[in-house]
Amino acid sequence: MKIIAILALLSLGVSGFSQTLTNKDISELQIKLKTIPNEPVGKDEVAVIETDFGKIVIELYAKETPGHAGNFKKLVNAGYYTGTTFHRVIPGFVVQGGDLYSKDANPNNDGTGGPGYDQKAELGQKHLRGCVAAARLSDQANPEKRSSGSQFYFCLVDLPFLDEGGYTVFGKVIRGMDVVDKIAAVERDKRDRPTKDVVMKKVYMTTKAELKKAE
Fold first, then answer.
1. Which of 205, 153, 173 is nearest to 58 (CA)?
2. I need a surface site. Which of 51, 94, 128, 130 has the fewest CB within 10 A?
Protein backbone atom coordinates (compact mmCIF):
# COMPACT_ATOMS: atom_id res chain seq x y z
CA MET A 1 0.00 0.00 0.00
CA LYS A 2 2.89 2.36 0.78
CA ILE A 3 4.36 1.86 -2.70
CA ILE A 4 0.97 2.49 -4.33
CA ALA A 5 0.55 5.68 -2.31
CA ILE A 6 4.00 6.94 -3.29
CA LEU A 7 3.35 6.09 -6.94
CA ALA A 8 0.06 7.98 -6.90
CA LEU A 9 1.71 10.99 -5.28
CA LEU A 10 4.51 10.97 -7.82
CA SER A 11 2.09 10.74 -10.72
CA LEU A 12 0.16 13.72 -9.44
CA GLY A 13 3.37 15.64 -8.87
CA VAL A 14 4.64 15.11 -12.39
CA SER A 15 1.38 15.90 -14.14
CA GLY A 16 0.95 18.97 -12.00
CA PHE A 17 4.29 20.34 -13.18
CA SER A 18 4.03 19.16 -16.80
CA GLN A 19 4.87 22.61 -18.17
CA THR A 20 7.86 23.74 -16.09
CA LEU A 21 9.67 22.06 -13.20
CA THR A 22 11.89 23.90 -10.72
CA ASN A 23 15.15 22.45 -9.42
CA LYS A 24 13.34 21.67 -6.17
CA ASP A 25 10.57 19.81 -8.02
CA ILE A 26 13.13 17.73 -9.88
CA SER A 27 15.08 16.87 -6.72
CA GLU A 28 11.93 15.80 -4.89
CA LEU A 29 10.76 13.62 -7.77
CA GLN A 30 14.16 11.95 -8.06
CA ILE A 31 14.07 11.09 -4.36
CA LYS A 32 10.57 9.59 -4.69
CA LEU A 33 11.48 7.58 -7.78
CA LYS A 34 14.32 5.84 -5.95
CA THR A 35 11.78 4.39 -3.49
CA ILE A 36 9.61 2.79 -6.18
CA PRO A 37 10.53 -0.69 -7.47
CA ASN A 38 10.46 -1.67 -11.12
CA GLU A 39 7.19 -3.03 -12.45
CA PRO A 40 7.15 -6.37 -14.31
CA VAL A 41 5.86 -6.03 -17.87
CA GLY A 42 2.98 -8.29 -18.89
CA LYS A 43 3.18 -10.40 -22.05
CA ASP A 44 0.57 -8.32 -23.91
CA GLU A 45 1.57 -4.92 -22.51
CA VAL A 46 2.90 -2.08 -24.64
CA ALA A 47 3.84 1.56 -24.07
CA VAL A 48 2.24 4.37 -26.08
CA ILE A 49 3.76 7.80 -26.69
CA GLU A 50 1.37 10.45 -28.03
CA THR A 51 2.86 13.41 -29.91
CA ASP A 52 1.62 16.12 -32.26
CA PHE A 53 2.85 13.90 -35.09
CA GLY A 54 0.88 10.85 -33.98
CA LYS A 55 1.25 7.82 -31.70
CA ILE A 56 4.27 5.57 -31.22
CA VAL A 57 3.64 2.09 -29.80
CA ILE A 58 6.55 0.30 -28.12
CA GLU A 59 6.90 -3.38 -27.30
CA LEU A 60 9.27 -3.88 -24.36
CA TYR A 61 11.66 -6.83 -24.13
CA ALA A 62 10.47 -8.03 -20.74
CA LYS A 63 12.25 -11.40 -20.94
CA GLU A 64 15.54 -10.29 -22.47
CA THR A 65 15.96 -7.00 -20.59
CA PRO A 66 13.74 -7.22 -17.49
CA GLY A 67 15.52 -4.44 -15.63
CA HIS A 68 15.19 -1.85 -18.38
CA ALA A 69 11.67 -2.93 -19.33
CA GLY A 70 10.47 -2.85 -15.72
CA ASN A 71 12.10 0.53 -15.12
CA PHE A 72 10.53 2.00 -18.25
CA LYS A 73 7.08 0.78 -17.18
CA LYS A 74 7.62 2.22 -13.70
CA LEU A 75 8.51 5.63 -15.10
CA VAL A 76 5.60 5.57 -17.54
CA ASN A 77 3.10 4.76 -14.79
CA ALA A 78 4.65 7.41 -12.54
CA GLY A 79 3.94 10.07 -15.18
CA TYR A 80 7.66 10.74 -15.62
CA TYR A 81 7.74 10.79 -19.41
CA THR A 82 4.58 12.79 -20.03
CA GLY A 83 5.67 16.34 -20.82
CA THR A 84 9.29 15.49 -21.62
CA THR A 85 10.64 16.17 -25.10
CA PHE A 86 12.65 14.55 -27.85
CA HIS A 87 15.66 16.79 -27.33
CA ARG A 88 18.10 15.23 -29.82
CA VAL A 89 17.32 14.49 -33.46
CA ILE A 90 19.90 13.28 -35.98
CA PRO A 91 18.47 12.19 -39.37
CA GLY A 92 19.82 8.84 -40.48
CA PHE A 93 20.84 8.02 -36.91
CA VAL A 94 18.59 8.44 -33.85
CA VAL A 95 15.76 10.35 -32.18
CA GLN A 96 16.45 10.69 -28.44
CA GLY A 97 14.33 11.82 -25.48
CA GLY A 98 13.16 11.04 -21.97
CA ASP A 99 15.11 13.57 -19.90
CA LEU A 100 13.32 15.02 -16.86
CA TYR A 101 15.37 18.20 -17.32
CA SER A 102 13.48 18.89 -20.54
CA LYS A 103 10.59 19.87 -18.26
CA ASP A 104 12.48 22.71 -16.61
CA ALA A 105 12.96 26.28 -17.88
CA ASN A 106 16.52 25.77 -19.13
CA PRO A 107 16.76 24.28 -22.65
CA ASN A 108 20.55 24.15 -22.43
CA ASN A 109 20.56 21.29 -19.91
CA ASP A 110 18.31 18.98 -21.93
CA GLY A 111 20.02 15.63 -22.30
CA THR A 112 22.05 15.92 -19.10
CA GLY A 113 19.51 14.70 -16.55
CA GLY A 114 17.45 11.72 -15.49
CA PRO A 115 15.61 10.15 -12.56
CA GLY A 116 18.63 10.27 -10.25
CA TYR A 117 19.97 6.77 -10.91
CA ASP A 118 21.39 4.65 -13.73
CA GLN A 119 20.88 1.01 -14.74
CA LYS A 120 23.04 -2.07 -15.15
CA ALA A 121 23.61 -2.92 -18.82
CA GLU A 122 21.54 -5.75 -20.34
CA LEU A 123 23.27 -6.40 -23.64
CA GLY A 124 22.55 -8.82 -26.47
CA GLN A 125 19.71 -7.27 -28.50
CA LYS A 126 20.40 -5.75 -31.91
CA HIS A 127 20.31 -2.10 -32.97
CA LEU A 128 17.89 -2.46 -35.88
CA ARG A 129 15.71 0.25 -37.38
CA GLY A 130 12.86 0.93 -34.96
CA CYS A 131 14.58 -0.42 -31.88
CA VAL A 132 14.34 1.37 -28.54
CA ALA A 133 17.63 1.62 -26.65
CA ALA A 134 19.00 3.27 -23.53
CA ALA A 135 21.32 6.25 -23.80
CA ARG A 136 24.41 6.30 -21.62
CA LEU A 137 27.62 8.17 -20.83
CA SER A 138 30.82 7.48 -22.77
CA ASP A 139 33.05 4.49 -21.98
CA GLN A 140 35.66 6.77 -20.44
CA ALA A 141 33.18 8.10 -17.88
CA ASN A 142 31.22 4.86 -17.69
CA PRO A 143 33.40 1.76 -18.20
CA GLU A 144 30.62 -0.57 -16.99
CA LYS A 145 28.39 0.75 -19.83
CA ARG A 146 25.57 1.46 -17.38
CA SER A 147 22.47 2.92 -18.97
CA SER A 148 20.74 6.21 -18.29
CA GLY A 149 17.87 5.80 -15.86
CA SER A 150 15.37 7.26 -18.33
CA GLN A 151 16.81 8.62 -21.58
CA PHE A 152 16.22 6.44 -24.62
CA TYR A 153 16.52 6.62 -28.38
CA PHE A 154 14.88 5.20 -31.49
CA CYS A 155 17.20 3.93 -34.23
CA LEU A 156 16.28 5.36 -37.63
CA VAL A 157 18.43 2.79 -39.44
CA ASP A 158 20.30 -0.39 -38.50
CA LEU A 159 23.28 0.62 -36.32
CA PRO A 160 25.39 -2.50 -35.67
CA PHE A 161 28.36 -0.49 -34.39
CA LEU A 162 26.25 0.39 -31.33
CA ASP A 163 25.89 -3.35 -30.61
CA GLU A 164 29.67 -3.55 -30.52
CA GLY A 165 29.80 -0.40 -28.39
CA GLY A 166 27.67 -1.92 -25.65
CA TYR A 167 24.36 -0.05 -25.60
CA THR A 168 21.25 -1.75 -24.20
CA VAL A 169 18.34 -2.31 -26.59
CA PHE A 170 15.19 -2.95 -24.54
CA GLY A 171 12.29 -2.71 -26.99
CA LYS A 172 11.07 -1.91 -30.48
CA VAL A 173 8.49 0.25 -32.22
CA ILE A 174 5.64 -1.95 -33.43
CA ARG A 175 3.44 0.89 -34.65
CA GLY A 176 4.18 4.51 -35.52
CA MET A 177 7.63 4.33 -37.06
CA ASP A 178 6.31 6.83 -39.60
CA VAL A 179 5.77 9.17 -36.64
CA VAL A 180 9.38 8.71 -35.56
CA ASP A 181 10.48 9.52 -39.12
CA LYS A 182 8.42 12.72 -39.05
CA ILE A 183 10.11 13.75 -35.80
CA ALA A 184 13.48 12.99 -37.39
CA ALA A 185 12.67 15.47 -40.16
CA VAL A 186 11.94 18.50 -37.96
CA GLU A 187 14.09 21.62 -38.12
CA ARG A 188 16.94 21.52 -35.62
CA ASP A 189 19.72 23.75 -34.36
CA LYS A 190 23.49 23.19 -34.49
CA ARG A 191 23.25 21.00 -31.37
CA ASP A 192 20.68 18.72 -33.06
CA ARG A 193 17.93 20.02 -30.79
CA PRO A 194 14.56 20.65 -32.48
CA THR A 195 13.96 24.39 -32.87
CA LYS A 196 10.38 23.75 -31.75
CA ASP A 197 9.85 21.37 -28.83
CA VAL A 198 8.61 17.90 -29.80
CA VAL A 199 6.71 16.97 -26.64
CA MET A 200 5.59 13.58 -25.41
CA LYS A 201 2.08 14.83 -24.71
CA LYS A 202 0.95 11.61 -23.04
CA VAL A 203 2.81 8.38 -22.30
CA TYR A 204 0.98 5.37 -20.91
CA MET A 205 0.87 1.58 -20.71
CA THR A 206 -1.88 -0.44 -22.35
CA THR A 207 -2.26 -3.83 -24.06
CA LYS A 208 -2.23 -4.96 -27.66
CA ALA A 209 -5.78 -6.19 -27.13
CA GLU A 210 -6.96 -2.75 -26.01
CA LEU A 211 -5.26 -1.11 -28.98
CA LYS A 212 -6.99 -3.53 -31.32
CA LYS A 213 -10.37 -2.71 -29.76
CA ALA A 214 -9.75 1.00 -30.37
CA GLU A 215 -9.07 0.52 -34.09
1. 173
2. 128
